[in-house]
Amino acid sequence: MSMVIGYTSAYTSPADFSLRRDFKIGENEMSWVGGLLPLGAVLGGLLGGPSIENIGRKSTLLLSDVFFLVALAVNYFARDYYYLYISRALVGVGVGFASLTFPVYLGETIQPEVRGTLGLLPTTLGNIGILLCFLLGNLLEWRELAGIAMLLTIPFLVIFVWIIPETPRYYVSKDKLEQCRQSLEWLRGKKQDITKEFDELVRSQKEQALKNEGIKDLFTKANMRPLLICLSLMFFQQFSGINAVIFYTTTIFRGSGSTLPPLLCTTIVGVVNMLSTFIANALIDRLGRKILLYISSGSMAVCLGSLGLYYYVKDIMKLDVTQFGFVPLASLIVFALGFSLGFGPIPWLMMGEILPAKIRGPAASLATAFNWTSTFVITKTFPIMIATLGFCVTFWFYGVMVVLAGIFTVIFVPETRGRSLEDIEKLLSGQKTRRMSSVANLKPLPSTF
């Protein structure tokens, strides 16, 4: 499903020309086609928290896939741009559900030693979806692109219904202890002794039940620190300008004066975006979350500064930049690489790690809604900022944001590598913990995300 999320998020970039041509869409209508996805995701995020607590993580993921299937069918059979509005809003609701639920599902099913590596699977597959959409965009137009997206939703429905279990933590929260044990056996393998992990889950649930926390306790002193860290990471993720780049990649290259075809440049960025997540997968449980966030913010700051300088020379100083036509492509390649190493996947990963178990549903719902609200702001304001401030000031603004993101990481973000969810919760509440040193013996998850 993460492949579908990536594919549908990138859809407006390669489909831009054919959508404008066939539906006679202007700038305002096109901005809503792009902007309704994050707006719908805000609603999906708000509904997702109660959903994962009441019907479960697995059922919520299935529900999101149904939203994708219906939305893409509307897109495929669109007769005017109002169909596109409905489709993008429904896709957004599905994205909101899925982007909230995946980090929680993976955080609750994967052992600490490999949680970073396997927790990045959704991001990796999402970037593969972006690349697939960019590649097909060189050959196909809007309707065919939507049809392929519909086909991508079907395998997830089949596999997830019949193979993937609900999380043990959800079962134990509903006092379904036998189902909890069965889920653990599936995840760890029948030959593994799950007694210790099962007992720890039951004990942790009893402790959480005694606290009797709920939505009203989101903003208590004990919960504010992890919640604010999570919200801040989501803010900096989006105000790096990444979704402006993904949604408007082709537009950026058209305005750059580069001698390379815009669709080719877009595809190259998609390739780098995908490959960089494999690098992150290899490093995250070796270097840890914070080191990758430092690398991410530093590389993005340099690239955004360079892009701003290029457009300043081109648009403000009115100098010939033909010999420097490689700068936009090179800058966006390194920008995509830096983002996918750190501030792309890690805020979502840490959302599933640092939020206390008792408020995880409503807190994750708030964080997801906040993330997609920020995405909506960025996607709607990017064309306006370009028109009023120019490319140079816009990219410099995003550059300042990623510098602030790096400073925030140094001061406030905890390292969670190798810690259990219970230990992370204790760490953020000021209690002493120790890192786990045992080697995980985890049954590999099928690549269905």
Automatic annotation (TrEMBL):
Belongs to the major facilitator superfamily. Sugar transporter (TC 2.A.1.1) family. Trehalose transporter subfamily. GO terms for cellular component: plasma membrane. The keyword rRNA processing does not apply. Residues 1-417 form the Major facilitator superfamily (MFS) profile domain. PROSITE patterns: MFS, SUGAR_TRANSPORT_1, SUGAR_TRANSPORT_2. It is found in: Cell membrane. SUPFAM superfamilies: MFS general substrate transporter (SSF103473). InterPro entries: MFS_dom, MFS_ERD6/Tret1-like, MFS_sugar_transport-like, MFS_trans_sf, MFS_Trehalose_Transporter, Sugar/inositol_transpt, Sugar_transporter_CS. Keywords: Cell membrane, Glycoprotein, Membrane, Transmembrane, Transmembrane helix, Transport. It comes from the Eukaryota. Pfam families: Sugar_tr. This is Major facilitator superfamily (MFS) profile domain-containing protein. The chain crosses the membrane at residues 30-48, 60-78, 84-106, 118-139, 145-164, 226-248, 260-284, 291-313, 325-349, 384-413. It is a multi-pass membrane protein.
